[in-house]
Fold:
Amino acid sequence: MTAPGLPELLAERRVLVVCGAGGVGKTTTSASLALAAARTGRRVLVITIDPSKRLAQTLGVSPDAPEPTVLAPERQEAVGIREPGCLSAWMLDPQAVADRTVRRLLSDAAAERLLNNRLYRNVSQVVAGMQEYAAVEALHGFVQDDRYDLVVLDTPPSRDALRFLDAPSRAGMFLDRRVLRVFVPGSENPIRKAATKMVETLLDLGLGAAAREELQHFITRFEQVLTYLNRNQVEMRRFFASREASFLLVASPAQEALEEAYYFETKTRELGLPFGGYVLNRSLDGTVGRPMPEEVTLAPDASPAVRSAIAKLSRLAVAERDRARRHQDLLEELGRRAGQGFALALPELPAGASDLEALVGLAGRLVGDTSLPLAV
Amino acid sequence: MSDTPRMDVLSRRIHLVTGKGGVGRTSLAAALAWAAAREGKRVLLTQIGDAEGGYSAIGRKFGRDQLTPDPEPLGPDGLRGCHVWATRGQEQFARSVIPAGPLIRAALNSKVLRKFATAVPSLHELGVFYHLLTLLEAQHEDGRPEHEVVVADMPATGQTLALTSLPDILLDALPDGPIPKAMRRGQAYLNDPAKTAAWVVTLPELLPVTEALELIDGLRATRVHPAGILLNRIPEDPFDADERRALSALLLEQPLHGSAAFHRIGVARAAEERLRSGTDLPIFPITEVPDADSPRTEAAIEPMLRDQLASFLS
Structure:
């Protein structure tokens, strides 16, 4: 059985999770993947939890939007998206996701009190992994939303992305009732009462009594929210492991980025998640066949500036040719590592793929279409 | 470069080396610590976070695969290194507020409390913060600080700001008690520009420059003083203006080996200009090792970075 290549993944999967080290072009790749799928007629949403909000700039989307923003029709048309294809983008706002969940789950008065709890007000900063809970919760909603055929999820740098996969088990820890009962008074069992008293004593020493009470209130109430989130997290964990999802790994030729990618590949397989393949960004593999500067035949009347520039370029060209060959080898190596998965390369875009035109070029390369121009 | 100001490293206690992923933060933090140690300071190089994935990125810069949360010698000149661990900081904090005896033993041995610590409100960041504070305050018997200069390789931008904003958040959430006391002790270092400097590492490309400018604003919003920008991996530029014009036209017609390098030079010039127009902070340019990702030159990178940083210090 042949494993699906990237065009098949883009056509069939419902969620693509894009992981990789920082600075390798993950966000750009995510946007290009989404664009490539939308160009084939799918309705695609790309979500980023990258706090730099770069994707917002690229796609012209507001970072504060509570709902996904559909790319303007004239821009959709300009990048070759035709009905029913559609591209939307959304920046994750963990606090907004949490607030919405609180309002849905609690009575008005209880919700109001929790929303005013000082710990809750900073929930996205104070609850470890809240960003990840919120990402998974949002994804859960979007997967069931019939506005989208495919959701592309951009992730924070890869070690964090692992935390995002761990989030459900962390939530499980938080929700361990044995743990929680100890922090919240109200038990009649004398042993448990004594345990609660001891924990209160410890917390009073550590936090002060007023803060301890606020913490108890926060834990009691927020537990309900997390119980709800956790159900969806468990469901999404199953979903991630299914054939509906695929995990793509973005790397660059830099050694550290590659090590992160290999580490993540191993983890993905350990966790039983479907590994799609590698995207090698900033690769010069496609330039291997270019001529060297000294091979250029200059016109007899070529200016001295051209001649000296060509001579200087020759020095840079030797190193660049070597790099191109190494990148070609590296791509082969990634192909071997990917096994059943794919490995493909995207060229370096010196100006950064910050406009839609560049994204279209990258989107073309992702599905093996080299006819689209790259703005190099 | 004569118009480059000096990096004021030796007079300050803490140097937070910040920047987005992939800009060379860890290498520059290591080089900075090395340069400060060579000036005769007792320097501690730390990395925020456990050595996940089984190896230590800063340790590797000194030929060590592993580093623990306890400072240990990293090389010559008294340079020492360790990781900053949340669990270590939590334990230290617990010991500082709970009297010695059965209560603290129960607290540290309790599985329930340990679970609580991994799962609940900001205890992770608190642990990181407290461990860092302990390292800063550690003294020799004669009262001299164990480490005169602490260089911290910070996590990626978002987590860095989560950490630098922690004191304000916790002081808002918990107005009194031992945690705010520790936070204020930390703030006395972190929010004092005479004691703490943040160095923003970035690359001469457009998006990294934009993000560096955002990070500078973010640091200022959390009252941490950005002292300068380390503009890393500036490509060698052998061309004059006439040559650049001539090559642009030629390469448009006919891509050659060297095209990518030439384009990068143009991007780097534009990005540096944008950075200079976007901030008044001093910019410390760090030249790229030519052909940096070649296995042949890899070994040459660290010494070259160290030398460049050493030149900014004196």
Observations:
- Chain A has 16 helices and eight strands.
- Chain A has a mean pLDDT of 82.
